[in-house]
Amino acid sequence: IDLKRTTEIDVSNVSFDSTGQPDFDGTSDYINITNYTQHQSSTGTIEAVVKLDTISGNRYIFGAGGTGTYGASRALRVNSGNWGIVTYGSGTEDWSTGVAASTTVWQHVAFGWSGTGVYFYINGVRTSTTRTGLVKPLGTILRVGMPPWSVSSASHGEIPILRHYSTLLTEAEMKT
């Protein structure tokens, strides 16, 4: 996980596979990163590489924020087999991308934002939507494997790479 040195990373709630990669069990595993504020900027991208074992239900890959109140979070999840973004604004701003998640291949996914634009990337290809009511997120937690506002909706599978960028990445940048 590439983050600033001032960030504290707690990996006590996750198991690791034989190669040392985080392997989330779908019930109680997550990585907590505190003192995280990069998601509060007006532009950014958070990317992950994932190999999921389960895509049913509501499974969060990561979430940045810390409370369930409006304006609190930026998150990437799988909901009923499709990738989705959560960008709580003036109302619940859940966006289903309509792109299927997979349990058979590794997927490179990302969530980007700039102003009122919200972007989803899958294997380097970007889709976008404009959302109204987006506000600066609250809270200072980045949680991998679950949303930051609760210990629920856990990922089941591997998430060995998570990166944050202070810019909105282009498709070309996502493919490098």
Kindly summarize this structure in a few lines.
The protein is 2% helix and 47% strand. The protein is mostly beta strands and 176 residues long. It has a 7-stranded antiparallel β-sheet, with no helix packed on it.
Q: If strands are numbered along the chain, what order do they take across the biggest sheet? A: 1-4-13-6-7-8-9
How far apart are the first and last residues' alpha carbons, in Å?
18 Å
Low-confidence stretches: 1-7
What pattern of helices and strands is seen along the backbone? EEEEEEEEEEEEEEH
Classify the oligomer.
single chain
DSSP strand tally = 14
Number of helices: 1
Q: Radius of gyration, rounded?
A: 15 Å
What percent of residues are in strands? over 45%
Question: Which of globular, elongated, flat, extended, rod-shaped describes the shape?
Answer: globular
Structural class: mainly beta
The main sheet comes to: 7 strands, antiparallel
Report the helical percentage. under 10%
Overall mean pLDDT stands at: 83
